[in-house]
Design a protein that fits this description.
By secondary structure, this protein is an alpha+beta fold. The chain is 56% helix and 13% strand. It is built from 9 helices and 7 strands. A 3-stranded antiparallel sheet has the order 1-5-4. A two-stranded antiparallel sheet has the order 2-3. The protein has a two-stranded antiparallel sheet with strand order 6-7. The chain is elongated, with a radius of gyration of 22 Å.
Length: 196
């Protein structure tokens, strides 16, 4: 089975950074992975599926797994399905123009980060199945946030208002007033600071 080289990983992640430079406030991972194919086309191997997961294309998983060292280096930020580049990531992108050097430096910073972590059993992931586990968790989190956002944005405004009031109450705030439904469809709540 062909191996993804450090150079190839650097090419893929430089492509990710190229796209993210155009989206300083972040870009949804699913859209980024779609757009990445035009910037760094997948190889025949990457177009294929994992033998143990015939419905999972390698390309997306390889890219997701390849970002780990860049995240730990502090160059790439992932937050609820949105990916963005940090300031140090932008500087690294400009400094390390060779894809292999770019990936090598991220790997070095990842190993440095790893050494600074509390002693835990070493968890190295070198198999395609392990890489899939990392990517699957990330995809599940992104999917959950996307579904939650979609559900909340499609809610009736007054139902949403009641959800927010319930959330504030659960957080310890005293909800003094919730506006009744009216023609302006406004969402109005008066809540006081958390109870002691």
């Amino acid at each position: 089975m062909p191996e993804i080289t450090r150079k190839r990983n650097g090419e893929l992640i430089r492509g990710v950074f190229e796209i993210l430079k155009k989206h300083p406030d972040g870009y949804p991972a699913k859209d980024l992975l779609r757009d990445l194919e035009a910037v760094v086309p997948p190889t025949e191997f990457e177009k294929g599926a994992f033998p143990t997961m015939p419905n999972v294309r390698r390309y997306d998983r390889i890219v997701r797994f390849g970002t780990i060292s860049f995240v730990k280096a502090g160059w790439l930020v992932k937050d609820k399905g949105l990916w963005s580049i940090s300031e140090t990531g932008l500087k690294a992108y400009e400094k390390f123009r060779d894809p292999e050097e770019f990936a090598r430096e991220a790997d070095r910073l990842y190993r440095q980060w790893r050494k600074e972590q509390p002693d835990e059993p070493e968890q190295t992931v070198e198999t395609s199945e392990g890489a899939s586990a990392v990517a699957t968790l990330e995809e599940a989190e992104e999917s959950a946030w996307s579904e939650l956002e979609s559900y909340l944005s499609s809610m009736n405004p007054f139902d949403f208002q009641n959800v927010v009031a319930g959330l504030l109450d659960g957080m310890g705030y005293h909800v003094a007033w919730i506006a009744p439904p009216g023609p302006d469809k406004g969402i109005d709540i008066i809540a006081n600071s958390p109870r002691s």
